[in-house]
């Protein structure tokens, strides 16, 4: 009996040794960037703090350098850290790194639409979307007018609070939501519309859940976690509900489509889709159109909405900055004219504050995952086709040389000695290169116009002593999510 036990133990030990040897062999068979040695099955998961993956990346970059390899279970990931390396990946080797790494929580969108598309339709869908968004942005009613019109509704909604404390999440969200809903479906929601509130709630809940530790685990180790209970199920359900809403809109518009008079982005997409179907090249379906529309709808709402919400919290902590903004607005725009894009040139302080808000809040710290489209030689390493690559954005936004004292909110990071706006190539909140944010122009315009309009008409009042406002995000993952708060807005005249 004892002999059998010893034999089994010996065999198990030999099997483990063999497994580790084969693993080591596979691991070293490519000239991959350096990194901690991965354990079988779990990879480097023990070296990563799931509550703050960006921080773990920074720590590992100090040890292994600006380009390093990690294993999340069996998933190989190359992390790129710091301005020079991130720029090289996104701009110098843009084609090789332009794939999209899989995000299992968005499985219903996989290889369709724009954001989560790593398939052959991505390039055309992206190109078409950019052109059509540009046309709508510059059309008879351009984006400037669209946002200005929406600013009136937003201000009206803020007035209704009558100086009482309120949670700004869905009031501020209503602005960007209506701007993109107008472009996509020619729709305008009332701020108390149940469908609109439901959609904003889904966007908001998903952005939060996607940034929790559990979803970091799910997105990187879905093969092990998928069948367990947990909040990934809620995220997947929400993604499907948003897609279902987009599909209903697409179907409704398809039923009343007049190809000679496109009414909005969705009409243009349907017309393009029918053209393509005639040549039977891409085989788009209404579902594909729904994914593109859903991508633009939630990306176009939640990012800008969260930035505005975080921005107001920051301004409440620094009343002296808010004061300077009021002064600039009063001087350049005055009390009643709605802010316009042309004002930006004469408002360097507001321009700098908007940039600094985006830099400081670090909305998407680790970017969206990219993927190599072919075996790629990068800085002497060989990165196999299909490897997930993370060109981190926080490593650029918090560069201590470019932005001294990077963890402090300072509009001066974007101002020169004469108080003029100072451009920085390190401002990469929208990423860069082939996958750069499709809505960058729209988002920048919204942030400037909405913030200017709010501060033109209201003083912000915190419910706690400004010094006690905590600006740290509640969770850090897919995004950096601001703390939950209430405020009062007091009319200025
Ligand atoms: C403050 C606002 C915003 C921020 C900070 C932001 C940030 C980003 C980032 C970091 C990416 C990933 C880029 C990459 O993979 O390298 C991205 C992609 C994207 N964004 Fe935005 N975004 C914002 C607003 C918007 C808006 C308003 C829209 C829609 C109108 C939009 C649509 C998209 C789309 C479609 C992609 C996917 C591009 C692709 O994969 O080819 N975003 N955004």
TrEMBL record:
<keyword id="KW-0276">Fatty acid metabolism</keyword>
<keyword id="KW-0472">Membrane</keyword>
<dbReference type="InterPro" id="IPR017972">
    <property type="entry name" value="Cyt_P450_CS"/>
</dbReference>
<keyword id="KW-0443">Lipid metabolism</keyword>
<dbReference type="Pfam" id="PF00067">
    <property type="entry name" value="p450"/>
</dbReference>
<keyword id="KW-0496">Mitochondrion</keyword>
<dbReference type="InterPro" id="IPR050182">
    <property type="entry name" value="Cytochrome_P450_fam2"/>
</dbReference>
<keyword id="KW-0521">NADP</keyword>
<keyword id="KW-0408">Iron</keyword>
<keyword id="KW-0999">Mitochondrion inner membrane</keyword>
<comment type="pathway">
    <text>Lipid metabolism; fatty acid metabolism.</text>
</comment>
<protein>
    <recommendedName>
        <fullName>Cytochrome P450 2E1</fullName>
        <ecNumber>1.14.13.n7</ecNumber>
        <ecNumber>1.14.14.1</ecNumber>
    </recommendedName>
</protein>
<dbReference type="InterPro" id="IPR008070">
    <property type="entry name" value="Cyt_P450_E_grp-I_CYP2E-like"/>
</dbReference>
<dbReference type="InterPro" id="IPR036396">
    <property type="entry name" value="Cyt_P450_sf"/>
</dbReference>
<keyword id="KW-0349">Heme</keyword>
<comment type="similarity">
    <text>Belongs to the cytochrome P450 family.</text>
</comment>
<dbReference type="InterPro" id="IPR001128">
    <property type="entry name" value="Cyt_P450"/>
</dbReference>
<keyword id="KW-0503">Monooxygenase</keyword>
<keyword id="KW-0492">Microsome</keyword>
<keyword id="KW-0560">Oxidoreductase</keyword>
<keyword id="KW-0479">Metal-binding</keyword>
<keyword id="KW-0256">Endoplasmic reticulum</keyword>
<comment type="function">
    <text>A cytochrome P450 monooxygenase involved in the metabolism of fatty acids. Mechanistically, uses molecular oxygen inserting one oxygen atom into a substrate, and reducing the second into a water molecule, with two electrons provided by NADPH via cytochrome P450 reductase (NADPH--hemoprotein reductase). Catalyzes the hydroxylation of carbon-hydrogen bonds. Hydroxylates fatty acids specifically at the omega-1 position displaying the highest catalytic activity for saturated fatty acids. May be involved in the oxidative metabolism of xenobiotics.</text>
</comment>
<dbReference type="InterPro" id="IPR002401">
    <property type="entry name" value="Cyt_P450_E_grp-I"/>
</dbReference>
<comment type="subunit">
    <text>Interacts with chaperones HSP70 and HSP90; this interaction is required for initial targeting to mitochondria.</text>
</comment>
